[in-house]
Amino acid sequence: MRLDKYLCETTKLSRADAKKAILRGRVKVADALITNPAQKIDITQTVLFDSSPLTLTGPIYIALHKPQGYICSTQDEVHPCVLNLIEHEKKDKLHPAGRLDVDTTGLVLLTDDGQWSHRVTSPKKSCAKTYFVALAEPLREDAVERCQEGIMLNNETKPTLPAKLEMISPTQVKITLQEGKYHQVKRMFAALDNKVIGLHRATIGHVDLTDLAEGEWRYLTAQEVAQF
Hints:
This protein is 20% helix and 25% strand. By secondary structure, the chain is of the alpha+beta class.
């Protein structure tokens, strides 16, 4: 691993500040002063920053129960970001592996592992996601069949992949998707002449909220991480 990347991973320094610290002689590797930010190091070596040893921890994988009113990006001056709910020294390095709208509640996966989040969100992986949906109008009679066949959404060239729709009441349903198109659930029910007035994501793959209250989070188990 490059020394500047190692410093970023083990401290709160940005890449630019990590390079400056290395150039200024603040970093030693195996008792040797290193001033080249691009120097490749063995992560098992002892690295000292201002004479204090650094420890490289593994990637972070978190399940969060997102409340309404929170966004999954940092570019918003009105709504708080979901990262505000996480108590972790490296939370600023996290990003969501699949976002939820500000008015949608439920499961959000957060990580600092870019390759892993790509596997979670890649259409090629067909990762199942389950949602509970509240509708403005009673469900039309052919909705289950339409979802199973695939629905042509507005501005799309191909129908959705087959989705499993289960009725809870005339205006409450459970739907499981194999893909994650932009605003897919809302657009699917719009195509079925209905409107989503409440949306909650319950599962992603085999990961669920496991009794997390809104705003609470937990680390994923090794088995949950490995499934993607």
